[in-house]
Specification:
Shape: elongated
Number of domains: 2
Structural class: mainly beta
Largest sheet: 4 strands, mixed
Distance between the termini: 41 Å
Number of helices: 0
Helix content: under 10%
Oligomer: single chain
Order of helices and strands: EEEEEEEEEEEEEEEE
Number of strands: 16
Length: 185
């Protein structure tokens, strides 16, 4: 079992569980309350030691699963089989679905935002809003991502030429130079 993650910025901790608990209150299901199948199960704990459990629908059974508590005292980002959810842990409600097939996710200190990539485009968001969303950069996938200051460089797949083409993403604005996809947004 993964350790609970705490920091000075948050009032809630969150950790993945191996499955739905056999005892205790019923888990809350996301994104719909009527889910009947076990997904990615996360336990939330407030600073007073009160627990609740969320059951998050997965996009893909083998997709990325992770928990991110970097956005503030109540905001928790859960990625379940590639599906992304922004949760208000205090009110136990879904703020928004972030998208599906999330391949890359990280917190950027300078932006105070989470950045996600689904292999086609990038998006940065904080607990209240989308900060920016890039144009589409790839036909199907990005790789070799490296951050240097406020720039992210990598390669985007071009299905027309069957090649990986370089791109550079400005992390402050979401602007992209290069890449593989030059079609309509």
């Amino acid at each position: 079992m993964a350790p609970i993650r705490y920091s000075q910025r948050r009032m809630f901790a969150a950790r993945p569980l191996d499955g739905l608990p056999a005892t205790g209150p019923r888990a809350l299901s996301f994104p719909r309350p009527d889910a009947f199948r076990e997904g990615f199960v996360v336990e939330f704990e407030d600073e007073d030691g009160r627990f609740w459990v969320g059951n998050f629908c997965k996009f893909l059974d083998g997709g990325k699963c992770s928990v991110h508590t970097d956005l503030g005292p109540h905001a928790v980002v859960v990625v379940a089989g590639g599906s992304g959810y922004l949760i208000d842990a205090a009110s136990r409600r879904l703020i928004r679905e972030i998208g599906f097939d999330i391949e890359h996710i990280w917190f950027d200190d300078k932006l105070s935002a989470i950045i996600v990539c689904n292999g086609l485009w990038f998006e940065a968001f904080d607990a209240q809003k989308v900060v920016w969303r890039s144009r589409r950069v790839s036909w199907d996938g990005v790789r070799s991502l490296k951050q240097s200051g406020s720039a992210l460089v990598g390669e985007a797949f071009d299905a027309v030429t069957d090649q990986w083409l370089p791109f550079c993403l400005d992390l402050t604005k979401g602007d992209i130079q290069g890449g593989a996809y030059q079609g309509p947004e």
